[in-house]
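PROTEIN DESIGN WORKSHEET
SECTION A - STRUCTURE
LENGTH: 261
TOKENS:
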């Protein structure tokens, strides 16, 4: 069973839009990131992505890169993730998925990371640079601990790769709308629809959410018209930088309420 999938499926059954929100742990400080994440959940985010700052974020756009660099310069260490995660999950019922590149997890130890993640109340992991073919250790321990595992589906993925991502994912499948880095865009790539259709053609019952480039309530509504959720990251970081927790909360509420079906 997946709490994440349950939340997304329930919203879909009610014909309500689902909003997945990203925020980096440790930005600008550990305590500040915890407060920001709790506020996001209380303001309408249905699933929270808690990002792990990393020194080589190949998929991240400038906004996220600068935020994670600030977190690292302010002293964030991977071991800090778990108390922050625990503080968030103790305060809200929203499913919290950790989003991390694979190398830090390998260095920490896959099984140890998974057990610490579970202990802290995390729902699972989003691994943008890990493909199912190379994920045996993670597949095994996530099965044992009943953790969500979210793999990416991209416009360049073959039919076989889309099916593998769909069948191996639990919680949701992360459909990338464009070939490139994250960051708000004026127009979503049309390929997003093709990726979602390709994943669903595999017959999976796992929800499919679209990320990279979503920056308005209209886009959240558009994505939810053909997928099971919209993923927003850079816009929330910009809001926080502009006006702290208050503006962040307002932005979440506006995106969620403005995209009602």
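SECTION B - SEQUENCE
RESIDUE ASSIGNMENT:
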């Amino acid at each position: 069973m997946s709490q994440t999938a349950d939340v997304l499926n329930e919203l879909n059954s009610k014909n309500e839009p689902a909003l997945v929100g990203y925020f980096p742990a440790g930005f600008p400080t550990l305590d500040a990131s915890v407060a920001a994440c709790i506020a996001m959940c209380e303001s309408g985010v249905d699933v929270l992505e808690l990002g792990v700052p990393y020194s080589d974020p190949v998929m991240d756009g400038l906004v996220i890169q600068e935020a994670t660099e600030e977190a690292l310069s302010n002293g964030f260490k991977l071991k800090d993730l778990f108390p922050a995660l625990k503080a968030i999950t103790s305060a809200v019922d929203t499913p919290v998925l950790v989003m991390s590149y694979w190398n830090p997890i390998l260095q920490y130890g896959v099984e140890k990371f998974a057990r610490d993640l579970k202990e802290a109340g995390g729902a699972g992991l989003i691994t943008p640079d890990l493909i199912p073919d190379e994920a045996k250790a993670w597949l095994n321990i996530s099965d044992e601990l009943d953790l969500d595992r979210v793999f990416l589906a991209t416009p360049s993925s073959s039919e076989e790769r889309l099916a593998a991502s769909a069948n191996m994912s639990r919680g949701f499948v992360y459909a990338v709308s464009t070939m490139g880095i994250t960051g708000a865009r004026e127009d979503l790539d049309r390929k997003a629809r093709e990726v979602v259709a390709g994943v669903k053609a595999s017959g999976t019952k796992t929800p499919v959410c679209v990320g990279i480039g979503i920056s308005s309530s209209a886009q959240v509504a558009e994505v939810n018209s053909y997928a099971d959720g919209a993923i927003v990251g850079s816009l929330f970081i910009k809001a926080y930088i502009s006006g702290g927790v208050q503006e962040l909360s307002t932005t979440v509420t506006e995106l969620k309420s403005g995209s009602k079906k």
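SECTION C - NOTES
The two ends are 27 Å apart (CA to CA).
Residues 18-147+213-255 form a domain with the TIM Barrel fold (CATH 3.20.20.70).
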